[in-house]
Specification:
two-stranded antiparallel ribbon; 11 helices; mainly alpha; about 50% helix
């Protein structure tokens, strides 16, 4: 759940490149759409609200939808636009902006290409994501998700972790709306958090690193008690926040543990759920 910037591209030139090697009958049809495509690309600007309210382009024939969608194949390895695929993953720094922890492995069409075939290869509509997020997003409406390029998520804690005991430690994740965050943006962040099952995914990831954290806390506790454990957890939280951003599962987890008196006072020695 973070912002990224799209790679700078000449969008119409990308479209012309994609159709350049198509079979002549197909290319002729797709060349005829260049003026309309140009207008559609210009319209894909402004706010997310503007984008999700766009009407699909009118096609001269229903068969042309498949032809426009298949332009996306030009991004495949050893195809004419393979460098665009690489630039999109580089723009995300190879980390999915939707969950902010899994590695990018696919491209998500923010506006689905089945409905908006005109945007099949528009760089601003293509966001490098992990397979899990892309697959979970599925056919849900685009207005329930954050646009990694167009939305501006403030650098404030929105993802928060909490530690509870029953009787062992349980870590949970939720969202908190900071002051100044627009209602619409927080609503879409909340929808994305729910639809991508991020609470459970964050919890599973946290569980994988918690054992290492506990071993380190044991050594620190023997040396300096709860205060040293708390100080080290906060130091690691700051380091993780610098590396991954404030809304990553790990700094949120470390802050929650640092703020839990029972954990810092040796609670880490009991079973952890």
């Amino acid at each position: 759940m973070r912002n990224i910037n799209p790679p700078p591209r000449n969008d119409v030139e990308d479209y012309q490149t994609a159709i350049a090697n198509r079979a002549m009958p197909t290319r002729t049809v797709l060349e005829g759409y260049i003026p309309t495509i140009t207008v559609a690309y210009v319209a894909y600007t402004g706010t997310v609200q503007d984008v999700v309210s766009l009407m699909p382009m009118t096609l001269l024939s229903p068969d042309h939808s498949g032809l426009l969608q298949s332009n996306y194949d030009a991004l495949s390895p050893r195809r004419i636009l393979q460098e665009l695929d690489a630039e999109l993953h580089e723009a995300a720094r190879f980390r999915c902006p939707m969950c902010n922890f899994e590695q990018t492995s696919t491209l998500d069409h923010f506006l689905p290409r089945a409905t908006y075939p005109e945007f099949s290869i528009l760089a601003r509509n293509l966001i490098a994501t992990c397979f899990t997020c892309n697959n979970s997003k599925g056919s849900y409406p685009a207005n329930r998700f954050v646009h990694a390029y167009l939305d501006r998520i403030p650098d404030l804690p929105i993802v928060v972790a909490n530690a509870t005991w029953d009787p062992e430690l349980h870590l949970g994740y939720s969202l908190m709306r900071p002051n100044g965050l627009a209602t619409d943006l927080f609503a879409r962040l909340s929808d994305q958090f729910e639809l991508l099952d991020l609470a459970d995914r964050f919890k599973r990831e946290a569980g994988q690193v918690l054992t290492e954290i506990i071993l380190n806390c044991e050594r620190l506790f023997r040396r300096g008690g709860a205060n040293l454990v708390r100080a080290e957890l906060l130091r690691q939280a700051n380091d993780s926040q610098f590396a991954y951003g404030v809304n990553h599962y790990k700094p949120a987890m470390l802050k929650a543990l640092a703020g839990d008196a029972r954990f810092c006072n040796g609670g880490f020695r009991v079973d952890v759920a």
